[in-house]
Amino acid sequence: MSVPHQAIPKQSDIDNILKSNKIMSCDCDAAQSPLWIIKKSSTGGRGLFGRKKIEKGSLIFTNKPLAIGPRNCDLDTAFCAYCYKTCEDCNYCEKCGLVVCSVNCETSRMHQTDCKFITMHWKLKSNVKEMSKILGRIRIYIQLYLLPAQQKESLLLFQHDNTSMFHELEYLCSCFVIPDEQIEFMKTVYSILKINSFRIPASDREKSIPLRGLFPLAAFLNHNCVPNTRNVFKEDNSMEVYASRDIEFGEEIFTCYTNFLWCTPVRRYQLYKSKNFWCKCVRCKDPYEMGTNLSAIKCFNKQCTGSILPENPINPSSEWFCDSCTSKIPFENINSVQHIIGSLVSVLSEDDDINPNGIVLQRLESFLPSCSHIFVDLHLRWTLKLGYFEGMSLYELSEYRLALKEQLCRDTLRMAAALGAGDAHLRGLLLYHLHAALAERARRCPDQYDVSISYT
Ligand SMILES: [Zn+2]
Ligand SMILES: [Zn+2]
Ligand SMILES: [Zn+2]
Ligand SMILES: [Zn+2]
Predict the structure, then answer these.
(1) Could you tell me the distance, in angstroms and rounded to a whole number, from the CA of residue 87 to the centre of ligand 2?
(2) Which residues form the SET domain (predicted)?
(3) How far apart are CA 189 and CA 317, in angstroms?
(4) Ligand lying nearest the CA atom of residue 81
């Protein structure tokens, strides 16, 4: 992840971090001749580039995390600090206070190391009952602090901003006396993790808390709102990065740190909040977002059937314009409408039954055209829910709902294709659901089944 004002590290430093972290851990030829190279990026920092042409579907690299830990700082959920399973009545280690769910987790090498570190360096201020809640959330900092010296130093090669106090650290300091040098280290790492870590999707195996990991090579991937890769996380939390379309020699390799289906103002704001930068990619600069008009609001002029769009989407105070009657609307007016839309969306419950005639939806329709990202998002949720929800199996869907599922799959596939999603997870997921709907249709009336599928 690049931040323009940060100095570009020397190639020898990069080589060190990659070598010391055994980056090229995949057992393929890539270890000898990687498909990528690290170079200066036009985004300002450094990035990964194709060292040769990379065919769609190719594995670009495999990357093991330097450290993993919980994603958010919700202090109410208790979990085992080692296997991350949620557990309400878990024991905690009497020596260090870390929560451990089983003898296995308690006697693990990782716990022995942490236990020794905490009891040696941190002095408990009082018998704080709640401290075990925070330790599992702070353990990722201990993992990184205990890295071998060279690797620990190379952490500073990752992009980071001004270091400041954060909630978990404040909490930790209220429980223990922590050496200043370690507090400073944790502040820096907090910023490194915020900017560079990747969400690790929850595994289906056990009930575990949401995780994130610091992946030393993937951290060099810059963001683009139309990425050319997709990530797959393995059982051992290692990450595989595949090309979602052909990547040319010398072309930059991108990932996407935000929701691909959100409209530009929402994506950019979320990227700023979570990763501290304002995206200026080609999609962000295009008011029409590759013809999808995801940001569109219905024209305020009741006689007009046009949509209003931001004139310059990367300037939040830009005027909006109507694509039909060409009226101009100051951003303040847009903000008030978006406020109303936001409150309507907040009362749309995810658990609501699928009801295209609901009152809230009708109100939303008075503001938004069907291409709006709000509807796209809602339609995607419906698509995945129809036929895959309690009391609503495919087998039991009404004809109307089966047809709705099929239609929504095709619409969203078309939109993702227009945005240039390539062979992304979203496309795979939608194709799976479209296939399920068509198979159910075929089961119901085999004679009428039309085998010609067109979704592009
Ligand atoms: Zn455990
Ligand atoms: Zn312990
Ligand atoms: Zn962008
Ligand atoms: Zn108009």
Answers:
(1) 17
(2) 34-258
(3) 34
(4) 1
